[in-house]
Each structure stands twice: as C-alpha cells, then as structure tokens.
Amino acid sequence: MSGTAQIGVTGLAVMGRNLARNFARNGFTVAVHNRTTAKTDALVEEFGDEGTFVAAHTPEEFVAALERPRRLVVMVKAGDPTDAVIREFAPLLEEGDVIIDGGNAHFEDTRRRERELREHGIHFVGVGISGGEEGALNGPSIMPGGSKESYESLGPMLEKIAAKAKDGTPCTTHIGPDAAGHFVKMVHNGIEYADMQLIAEAYDLLRRVAGYSPAKIAETFRGWNTGRLDSYLIEITAEVLAHTDAATGKPFVDVVQDRAEQKGTGRWTVQIALDLGVPVSGIAEAVFARSLSGHADLREAARALPGPSAAPLGETEAATFAEQVEQALYASKIVSYTQGFHQIRAGSEAYGWDIDLGAVASIWRAGCIIRAAFLDRIRAAYDNGPDLVSLLSDKEFAQEIGVAQDDWRAVIAQAVRQGVPTPGFAAALSYYDALRADRLPAALTQGQRDYFGAHTYRRTDREGAFHTLWGGDRSETTAD
C-alpha cells in the first residue's frame, strides 16, 4: 500500500465517519481506519461513491497509506482513549508528520501531548470542531491550534472542508500555538451553555408569565429569528417548540423530563475561568442550572416551599411582556459573549497564544452551534479595536444595552414577583451593573479579610499595602 492518501482518519464513529466523508467529498484521498475493521469496510462500501477512500485494517497499513508529511486525524473519545491511540501510532511516524486530535479534549491534555510529541519532531494539532454530526459532514467551524508549520500543511485542507460564511470566508483559521484551538472550543461550548440557558429562560417566561402555548412561543421565536437574534439556536428552538409528540399528541417539550445533562466542556470553562480569575457568571449559572435540574430529590423536597405562583398576563400585557423578553434575551446574550471573549483574551495572555479575537468571531459565523448573525458585528468590533477590553466598551453594543436595560430590568423584576427563576438573565444584569458601578462592596470584603486574617488592604489615598491592628486604638500599620 503506497502513500497516496492526503489525509487519514482513525476512529469511525459518527463524527469521524462524517469528517472522512467530508474530506473525500472535497476531492481528497482519505485513508480510513478503525479498531473494529468492520466499521472501516462498511464506510467504504456504503459511501465509496462519494470520493476516494483507502481502507486500512492495521495501524501499519494506515500509516503506509499516507503521503508525506503524514496527516493523521484522531477521532476517538477524549482522555485515555486518545492517549492510547497516540501511543499506538506515534512510533510509526517520522519527523514532520502531523497528528490531529479532533475530539473535545481538555486543553491541558493537548498542551502535554503537543510538548511530548514535539520532542520527537512530530506536530500535534488540537482541533476544536463544532457543528455536530451534520457539521462534520457538510462543513463545521474548525478551531486548530498547533505550530505554524503544521497549519501550512493542514490549513488548506481544513479551509476546504470548513463551513463558509455568507461572504465566502472559510470558518477556520490558525488559532495559535499548542492548545489554543481546544481552549477556544472549550469557551465556545461555555458560551453555548449560556446561550441555551438564556433561551430556556425566555421560553419559561413566555410560557408561565405571558401564558403562551409552546406553539405560540415557537411562532414568537421564528419572528425573533428574522431580526437581531437570528441564530442557529433560536432557529432550532422554534422547531423543538412546534413539534408535537406522536405518541401522546402533546407538545414535545411537555413529554421530556426537565433534567438537563452535560458532557463537561461547560464545566471546564467555569473551572478554568476561576483559575484565570475571569468572571464568567452567566456561563457558571448555566452550568449550575443544568446541575440543579438533575437533583430530583432536592427539588422534590423543596417543592412545597412558600412563594408566589406565576399568573398569566392579559393578552395586551403579554404582548408587551414578550417584547421586553426579547430585549432581555438580547442584552443577556451580549453579556455572555462578552464574558467568553474576555476569557479567551485572558487565556491567550496567560499562555502566550496571541489569539486574534476578531478572527475567532469570524470563524463562528457558520458551521458551529453558536453561529449567529451578530457575530459579524463582534468581528467588526474587534477588527476596529484589537485592544478592545470588553465588548460592552464597543459603542454600538453599549448603545443597544442602554436601550434594552429598562425592559431587561422589568423582565427580571416581573420574574421575581411571580417566582419564575431567571439565573441567566439576573447574572448577566448583575455583571453589567457591577462593571458600571463607581464603587463595589469589595472594599468592605477587604476590611473583613484584614480583620479576621490580617490579609491587608490597599488605600485610595496612598500607595502600599496596609493592615489595621483591630483593637482598642485600631492603629494602622504599613504591611509593605
């Protein structure tokens, strides 16, 4: 078997199989391999007419089928299975070859793998892929990290198979060194968690406060999807809400258990944000909301606690309220993206990645789960101001939130009065108000810390760290 394949994919579950088909459909010869050889043969038999595949039944055959420099895409479960595949294939490769991990790996694992393989002259590229199985087949958003040299070899192929934005730009770019790609994919998923939670809260408010049926809410979401909230998640939400369960004739959403699951990337986003000291309260509340929904015993024990019950508004009031919810959803969505891009900037600075935030917004415009029309404006904001500290500092976004904030506050107040939880909306507004405050109560927190632990504090009127001797005279000492 001579080296004729331009790229290879090992791991032929749904994502790996569809990615291999995507490469083949775009004119590349693709070597395919799976631990279970029947999957390899089945792919070639079923989809062989879509392009040129080379079936390999052993690691040695697979590597031999690849042209130099070899480009080997690993599509297996993150963690130990990925390490096992690397240990299996790395000894068969040569200097300059490229291993590409297309799974949802933790970025610290990617940093370790890149460092270890670099010592052997092998490039390791952690690639974030968003868009699910449909995106893998028809064009995902692709977030590759790794060395510049590896992108010179791999980039043109990724650009060919990636989703294309409306202006024709491929939704992929070299994110940065080592684990930059997987880090950005992690934050992408954190924003996705927040976006989904905000949409769920909007649905809950329209259902319980406005008194709308799922079908009516679907209609409302379809209307929103023609404006500034135009996005994939809004689009599919309307489809889900309009769907009727065939077995019962009830709205589909009413026969699904209200216990949300998660695979961990949103949780990673919050954990790493804590390590970096970056406030991502909206993303955190989305993660905690999923966690709380799963604690059935806890919820059952608290169900009889006193509190108000939602009472649907009249028709005219409900229509006005729905418009306010749209404002609250849009403003909260801006905050979620603000927090996510702040975390990417912080990670870039901490790890020396030099990530272009405008480019990140650009490659999220199509293919990925959080694709949305307003990403064009986020891209423009960072292109016009590469040193923009926060999206909320952008003049246009600041003006829009200024217009939205009265309705935003009214929605949250109404939710509180009627006992409808809105952790995402409320966290977003608290973040916004905290940023614009002249002073925060953190001054008192520092006083408390100094009192019980002599942790010192800094003053507003002179430099240095200080400690107060808390006692009768309460004298002050300089701690520096």
Structural key phrases:
19 helices, alpha/beta, 7-stranded mixed β-sheet, 480 residues, 3-stranded antiparallel β-sheet
In short:
By secondary structure, this protein is α/β, with parallel strands linked by helices.
What does it look like?
By secondary structure, this protein is of the alpha/beta class. The protein has 19 helices and 10 strands. Strands 3-2-1-4-5-6-7 form a 7-stranded mixed β-sheet, with helices on both faces. Strands 8-9-10 form a 3-stranded antiparallel β-sheet. The protein starts with 6 loop residues before the first strand and ends with a strand.
Helix content: 40-55%
Shape: globular
Can you give the mean pLDDT? 95
Encode the helix/strand succession as letters. Answer: EHEHEHEHEHEHEHHHHHHHHHHHHHEEE
Overall radius of gyration: 26 Å
Protein structure class:
alpha/beta
Per-chain topology:
Layout: E1 7-10, H1 14-25, E2 30-33, H2 37-47, E3 53-55, H3 59-64, E4 71-74, H4 80-89, E5 98-101, H5 107-118, E6 123-130, H6 132-138, E7 141-144, H7 148-161, H8 180-208, H9 214-224, H10 232-242, H11 265-276, H12 281-293, H13 296-302, H14 315-351, H15 357-363, H16 375-384, H17 395-418, H18 423-436, H19 442-453, E8 457-458, E9 465-468, E10 476-478
Parallel strand pairs: 1-2, 1-4, 2-3, 4-5, 5-6
Antiparallel strand pairs: 6-7, 8-9, 9-10
